[in-house]
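Q: What would this complex look like in 3D?
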Amino acid sequence: MSGVTSVPVPTVVPATAARAKAAGAGGRTDSVRKRIVIHGILIIASLIAAFPVVRVLSVSLRPADRLLERDFKLIPDGATLQSFVHVLTETDLPQWLFNSLIITIGTSLVGLVFAATSAYAFSRYRFPGRGVGLTALLATQLIPATMLLVPLFILAVQLDLKDTYRGLMIAYSVTTVPFSIWILKGYYDTVPIELEEAARIDGCSQLEAFWRILLPLSTPALAIVFLFNFLTAWNEFVLARVLIGSSQELFTWPLGVLRFQAQFQTQWGDLAAASILISIPVVALFLYSSKWLVSGVTLGGVKG
Amino acid sequence: MNLDQTLGALGEVVTTLLVIAAAVVALEGFLYLVLVRWIKARMAVPFMLIAPAFVGLIVLIVYPLLWELNASFTNMSLRNFCDPGFPTMGIGVHCRTEGDMFIGVENFARVFTAPVLQQAGFFQVMWQTVLWTATNVAAHVAGGLGLALLLHRAMRGKGIYRALIVLPWAVPQIVALAVWRTELHSEFGMVNQLLSVVGVDGPSWLSDPTWNFVAMVAVNVWLGIPFMMVILLGGLQSIPSDLYEAAEIDGASSRQSFRHITLPLIRPVMTPAIILGVVWTFNNFNVPFVINQNELETSDTLVTGLFRAAFQYNRYGFAAAYAFIIFAILLVFVIFYVRRSGALKGATE
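A: Here is my prediction, written as structure tokens for the whole assembly.
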């Protein structure tokens, strides 16, 4: 289901493979003029990429009566944190964030368990239907998330799951599983099977070998998959809108933030402050984890 | 935060998790009895391992798709709603016997002949989608490759540039889109304020059809370049540097080594990235939906049009047929492209 796509797609590359490639482009040195041009282009690209973020930061610091003024200063005149205080105390934002957080943590863990066990079966067993299963997992990635909205909506109405978290959580638990299985299977494949065989000679059962040998060795991959599940569910919007969009007390943050946006003339400060609050942890997590993740689709590995 | 609401939400989440856990235990117990005790299958373990995930996928994807296929042959809508009842959910005959719901393939024909939305027909929306996908993917690849080539060298500040350029990808998408929608406001938005500094009278991005489409594409280009850049940078880093050294010794210009070393060797990375890029852009819902806020039909792509047909006009049967046609288009493209490029060869090994 391509609902996952609004989110970084990580894959884990075993550390040894990545290290070998860390060296860069070789030792060619550029002339001074070429270097100036390169830095110039990169500075412009960085400005374009970062400008909206900086601008929102600046708007969030504005006093309420100057929200719509034309002002390009980084720190506005009369800078104040009142938007942050307002959004945290007078609006439902904390509730929305809390709702998002518990749903997201719960479903990410469920998805991780489902994917970790399935990937083990695909990596270590040659069972009938294995190839078909793997291809079917890839094929699910083609299905537009929007395509499933009509049936899921009507099924949710029929089963009384609309305006509850139950339907949403089951969907979130499963959405990222196909991709996670592929990531984890790829990682398990790089762990030598001899380690598990040795453990079995020492008296472990196969599942014990999985639990005691392979899983601990796969911690980085498991962390990445958890992170990927987490970010996907955390950012999901359209299914939440269809399933819980009509009951405001259940809102997750994307629904709430778009409500701020819809009333933007009065709530630009709220929107800006909320955006900053929501983004900081996610961006920090993202930049931190990009140390090990990066480059999912690639067949060759990467270290950033 | 309201304590009742908070506890209520927490309670519901915990209950749901317990229900999922109980369902998994029941499923595994059932499989154990059937596979191990009854059939005594040799390969019981892998099936038990994959069972929870695959049952979940069947519930979430396969079953809804079957339901949708069934609905696509009916004229079900909000007004003409048939309660299919549990557990068949309308798969089978139930809905077909009730009145004259069953209309055969008429929905599929109607997608091409009648207006899909209120003014726009299928081919117009299709054309908008192709334009949207092609411009975006082209810009993502060009921009991503350009920046990756620039960053793929030893230089000062590389880490800082990378961190800044990756920002659009790192920021939660809904946040970025809500902010862009606000900044595109013709009077109070940053975009037009900046344009007026250089003396240009900015267009009304939110209500003018052409400019709305341009804005949509621009925002998605901004969002999508970092991903492509990171992927391609990974591809570049996996090219051994001695190839370039050898080429340099043989007197190759940097353009020649780009053409004959970089491009061919980056293809195994670039081809899947392009396929994924096309699929994701084609299926992208959030960007057109938020930037356009479901207003202009001239900015609809096939998937936002689908949302409108289903949830604004509530024509469920029609929307179901329309969904399958969209899926068929995507499937044909991917099969064609994968065959031709030989990508994903041996991916299931």
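A: To summarize the key features: The first helix of chain B runs from residue 3 to 39. Chain B has 14 helices and no strands.
Q: Very helpful, thank you.
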